[in-house]
Design a protein that fits this description.
Layout lengths: L2 E2 L2 E2 L22 E7 L2 E3 L2 E4 L3 E7 L8 E2 L17 E6 L3 E6 L1 H4 L14 E5 L2 H14 L17 E8 L4 E2 L2 E14 L8 E2 L8 E2 L8 E5 L4 E5 L2 H4 L13 E9 L25 E5 L3 E3 L2 E5 L3 E6 L8 E2 L17 E5 L4 E6 L4 E6 L4 E6 L2 E7 L1
Parallel strand pairs: 3-6, 5-10, 11-13, 13-18, 19-22, 21-28
Antiparallel strand pairs: 1-2, 3-4, 6-8, 7-9, 9-10, 11-12, 13-16, 14-15, 17-18, 19-20, 22-24, 23-25, 25-28, 26-27
Length: 381
């Protein structure tokens, strides 16, 4: 199971929610879908509400991940997703979460056609932004149109149920939701608990993964039926916590789906935010012919750049004069690496001291070095 912030979810059956961009000046969605293929991520940037979720679906033929880079508010990693698999995370803390696929672009990987020269982005809005967007949307709607909804029968189950876990048990013991609805478990206890259904011969069950104090987990249900569950650390796999009431507890999923709202006027599409640093691949190779590849790299402050000598000759990574703090790898033989952390925004030029020629400068009547291998690290805030 994968866990993030105040959230955990990797349950089956998995509710797949629409992933279209929000309308201009409208509040962002609470949940989006993102498709990963062998050639990248679509959409490359999404915006969600605080507490909203992102579901990544691997539609490629290779294993991919969604792994945070560049100092996200809190790190996340889906782990390897095989073709056809999906993972959903809930994001509770506002901020910008840059990420890439570790199997394609991180830890020295660079697997075209996956675009390792950019990073992908999840923006989690603040409560103030959500309120402002909602007010702007209401003010911009044509006066002839008001939001309406299909009449909902009085006995139709709710789209979402909130369930509390304590160190003594789970409440309420039974909840009923509409088809394609979800259940959110919140651990108010002091120890780790889960909401776990072992499943049956025809259904794979679900598991929130371990929820620490204050954490929450969501599971979406796209199949009607009655599903029983309990807490694994307390009641399953040989565990028997005498202080915890093991249930079983029940989720009832109605066969009737919740009616959707009426359709507002079609707004202009939301532009995709510019994808800035951090870089997803911060590895630079050195060869005997071309020098540094790439010769220019843009990263986010705090990222680490690693140079690896792929050639047969000795090369160096030496900062140009005037940079504080200076850095110098010394001679790097074939296969050797050198790393530098760049905490301060700026542009850092460097060169290889072993790849040099000398020329006479008539202006100073001196000999000056001319370096054939040069590179630049641009560090953004």
């Amino acid at each position: 199971m994968k866990k993030l912030l105040l959230c955990t979810l990797f349950g089956l059956p998995l509710l797949l929610l629409p992933g279209a961009p929000a309308a201009a000046d409208s509040p962002p969605p609470a949940a989006v879908n993102v498709v990963i293929s062998d050639s990248g991520v679509n959409p490359p940037a999404v915006t969600i509400l605080p507490g909203g979720s992102v579901t990544w679906i691997n539609q490629g033929s290779n294993v991919h991940t969604a792994s945070s880079i560049g100092g996200a508010p809190l790190p996340f990693n889906t782990g390897g997703m095989a073709p056809g698999q999906s993972v959903m995370f809930t994001f509770g803390i506002p901020g910008k979460y840059y990420y890439s696929s570790a199997t394609d672009c991180l830890d020295g990987n660079n697997k075209p056609p996956f675009p390792c020269d950019i990073s992908f982005l999840i923006t989690v809005t603040s409560a103030e932004v959500v309120a402002t967007s909602a007010a702007a949307t209401a003010a911009s709607l044509p006066p002839t149109w008001t939001p309406t909804a299909t009449p909902v029968p009085a006995n139709l189950p709710a789209p979402i149920a909130i369930v509390t876990i304590t160190d003594q048990g789970i409440s309420p013991a039974t909840v009923t939701i509409a088809l394609n609805g979800s259940v959110r478990w919140v651990n108010n206890g002091s120890t780790v608990h889960t909401a776990t259904s072992p499943g049956t011969s025809t259904w794979m069950g679900f598991d929130t993964g371990g929820l620490a104090q204050g954490q929450l987990g969501n599971v979406g249900f796209s199949t009607p039926g009655t599903f029983t569950y309990t807490s694994a650390p307390d009641c399953l796999n040989g565990s028997s916590n005498p202080n915890f009431k093991c249930g079983p507890y029940t989720v009832i999923v109605s066969a009737v789906a919740l009616p959707g709202p009426s359709t507002p006027p079609t707004p202009a599409p939301t532009p995709i935010p510019a994808l800035a640093a951090p870089a997803s691949n911060t590895t630079v190779t050195i060869d005997d012919v071309s020098g540094y590849q790439p010769s220019m790299l843009t990263i986010k402050a705090g990222q680490i750049v690693t140079w690896t000598n792929k050639g047969a000759n000795v090369h160096t990574v030496s900062s140009n004069s005037g940079y504080i703090p200076a850095f110098d790898s010394g001679g790097l033989g074939g296969g050797q690496s050198f790393s530098v952390t760049f905490p301060i925004p700026g542009s850092y030029g460097y060169h290889s001291q072993t790849d040099v020629t000398y020329s006479n400068d008539a202006g100073c009547a001196c000999v000056i070095p001319v370096y054939s291998f040069n590179g630049t690290i641009n560090v953004t805030s």
